Amino acid sequence: MSIDYERIGLKVGLEVHQQLNVGAKLFCDCKPELFKDQPEIVFLRRLRPTQSELGQVDPAAYFEFQKGTKILYEANSATSCLVEMDEEPPHPLNMEAVEIVLTVAVLMKAKPIDEIQVMRKTVIDGSNTTGFQRTCVIALNGQINVGEKVIPIQHASLEEDAARKTGDEEDNVTRYRIDRLGIPLIEVATAPAIRSPKEAEEVAFAIGGILRATGKVMRGLGSIRQDLNVSIRDGALVEIKGVQELELISLAVEYEIQRQLKLIEIREELGRRGAKEEEVKEEFIDVTKVFEQTKCKVIRKALDKNQRVLAVRLPRFRDLLKQELLPDIRFGTEVADRARFWGRVGGIFHTDEMPAFGVTKEEVEALRQVTTADEQDAVVFVADRLENARDSLKAVVERSQEAIRGVPEETRSANPDGTTRYMRPRPGAARMYPETDIPPTQVTEELLSRIKSNLPEVPEQKLERLVEEYKLNQKLAKQIIDSEHCRLFETIVKESNVSPTAVAVFLTETMKSLKRNGVRVERVSENRIEEIFRSIDSGELVKESMPEIVRWLSEHENKSVAEAVTDTGLKMITREELERTVDEVLKANEDLVEEIGMNALGALMSAMMRKVRGKAKVEVVSELLRERLEAQGTRKQQRK
Ligand SMILES: [Zn+2]
Question: How far away, in angstroms, is 306 Cα from ligand 1 center?
C-alpha cells in the first residue's frame, strides 16, 4: 500500500546527535573512551529530583524517584574524574568542541550566538550523576540544501553525552557506566519541514556529511544517534529516541505513520461502537477467587506469594487489543508497555488472547461474569502485589481512554528493527535552567573569522573532487561520502596500488553486504582495513579474499591481518608451490593436453583455481599455465 504523505499531513523533524572526537571530554580532561574491563570504582546513589528554579519537575522523572530507584555507577580513572562523579564543579567548556560546532554552524549558514550560556536540563533517570544534562545552544536559524529543497535548521548545540546503562539489578537498582558521561556531542535540529520517510533519511545523510566534513566526529555504532519527531494530521506528535543507524530512519518513520494510522482506525471503530471515555473507569475488581485452582504458571506463582489478581473492564474494546499496529506489536502490546512502566509489573493478560497461557475457557467465563463484561467488552487482568497491580491497571485505563481520543503524544524508543516501544510521557516544557558553575563564553569576531577562513571542504565540493581526481563515477563517489570511510578511502588510495574504484567498492558495497550478512564490520578498525590493503600490495593476499579476512577480524578483535591470513588459510602460496601445483594439474590432465593442446587452457584453469582460489592471483596462474602449455607444444613440434 502506498501512502500519500501530503494527504495525511506528515511532518518530520530530525535531531542528529554525534560524538565529537576532540581528545577530551566537554567539562574535564578525561579520555572520551569506553572501557570494557572491570570497573575500578563503584558507587551507589539514590535518585533525587533536583527542584529546578522554576519549581518544575518532569513527571516521568518524579515517578522514577517515587519508585525509590537506586543507581550503581561504575567508573575507571582513565575515563572519569571527580567531575563525572559530581564531586567537583565542571571545568570551563572545551573550546575545541565549541569550534567544531561553530564550523558546522557556519557551513549550515546558521547565526552563531554572541555569548554561550551552558544550561542544565533535568534528567532524572540516573543517566547523569548530577540529575541534569548540560547543554548549550551555539547557533540558530540555519539551512541546508537537500536535493532541490531547502531544509531549515533550528539550532546547532553542544551537549554532554550521558552515562550508559549496563543493566538492571534486583530491588530497583540500575547500573550505569560513567565513561560515556561528558563526551561532547553536537546536536543539530531541523524544523519539522520533512515531508516523506525517504526525505528524512536524505536529510540525515546530508547533516551527517557536513558533520563528517569537520573531520572531528567519532565513528562506529553508538557514536551517532537520531531522534525523530513524527506527526500526521489527526494523529499526534511522537518523539522517537535513539535511532542508531541512518539506514533505519525511513523505515522508522514509515512504521510510525503506520502505527498512527492504525490507532486512528481503532479510534474510529471505537466511535462506531459508541465507546465513551467516561465509561472506561478505574474500577478494579479483585478476581483472585476465579484463579484459585488455575494452571496458569504466572498467576500460580503470584498467588503462591500471596499476591492478588486484579481486573478492569474495557467497555466495547473486544478484539481491539489484538489488532496489529506494527510487526509483532499489537495494541495490547502498547497497553502492556504502559502497565509495565507505571506498575512495575512483568506483563498483563487480556481476554482477546484467551484462553491461553494455561488460563481455561471456564476461568475466562467466570472472569467476564465477575467483572460484568458483556459480548463487546474486553477485560485486562494482572497478578502482582496489590499496589503494583493497581498502578498498572490505572495505566491501562489511561491508555484505553487515550485510544478513544486517538493517538497519544509520547516519547518512544527505537528498536534495532525500526519499530518502537513506549519509553515515557513527553516531557513538559521549562526543564532548563542556567548552569551557574560555568561562566558564559563569548563568541568573538576574531574566533568567528578564524573559523570562516579555515572551513573544511563541504560534501558537494568533495563529490566534485572525488570524481575528478580518482575518476570515480558519481554514484560511487556519493556512496563513499555518505559512508563513514571517506578519509580512509583517500588514505588507502594514496598508499596503495589498488585502483580507486576497487577501494571505493570495497568500502561501500562490500562492507554493506557483509553487514547485511550479519558480519559486525564496525568491529574492524580503520587501521586494520589499511593493513588489509597493504597486504594486497605486498602480495600476501588477493583482493578476492578481503571479505573473508574482514569477517575473521570482526570475530577476533585485537588480532592482526597477518594472523587472519594464517588462520583462514588464505595466505598466498609461494611461486614454487604454485609451480608444483601446475605440474600436478598438467600431469593429471596429460591426455587432454596431448589431444587438444592450447585449447585445454580453460579446463586446466578451472582445475587450478579449484586448488588455489584465494591463494594466488588469477592473472599469475593463467600466465604460468599458458607458458607451460606453449613450452610443451613447442617440444611436441620439435619431436615431430
Ligand atoms: Zn573527568
Answer: 48
Q: Which residues surround ligand 1, an ion (CB under 5 A)?
A: 28, 30, 81, 83-84
Containing structural domain, residue 493: 459-568
Whether residue 426 lies inside any domain: the answer is no
One domain for residues 513 and 614: no
**Are 307 and 210 found together in one domain?**
no
Which residues fall within 8 angstroms of residue 158, CB to CB, at 6 or more apart? 26, 93, 97, 98, 101, 116, 135, 136, 138, 184, 185, 186, 187
Report the number of secondary-structure helices (H) and strands (E) in the chain. 21, 23
Q: Are residues 560 and 599 in the same domain?
A: no
* Residue 42, C-alpha cell as written in the block: 563503584
Q: Write the DSSP string, 468-509.
A: HHH---HHHHHHHHHSS-HHHHHHHHHH-SS-HHHHHHIIII
| CA of residue 24 to ligand 1 center, whole Å | 9
Examine residue 79 and state whether it is found in any structural domain, yes or no: yes
Q: pLDDT for 460-473, tens place per residue?
A: 888 999 999 999 99
| pTM greater than the 0.85 cutoff | no
Better pLDDT: 547 or 57? 547
Position 640 scores a pLDDT of 59
Lowest pLDDT segment from 45-49, 259-263, 366-370, 509-513: 45-49
C-alpha 447 – ligand 1 centre gap (Å):
26
Q: pLDDT exceeding 70 applies to what percent of the chain? A: 95
Ligand 1 centroid to residue 127 C-alpha, Å: 16
Domain boundary among 568, 594, 620: 568
pLDDT tens-digit profile of 35-70?
Answer: 988 999 999 887 665 554 444 555 665 666 666 678
Residue 52 sits in the same domain as residue 169: yes
Q: What pLDDT does 525 receive?
A: 86
Instruction: Determine the distance separating the centroid of ligand 1 and the alpha carbon of 27, expressed in angstroms.
Output: 7
CA atoms within 13 A on the CB side of 638: 6
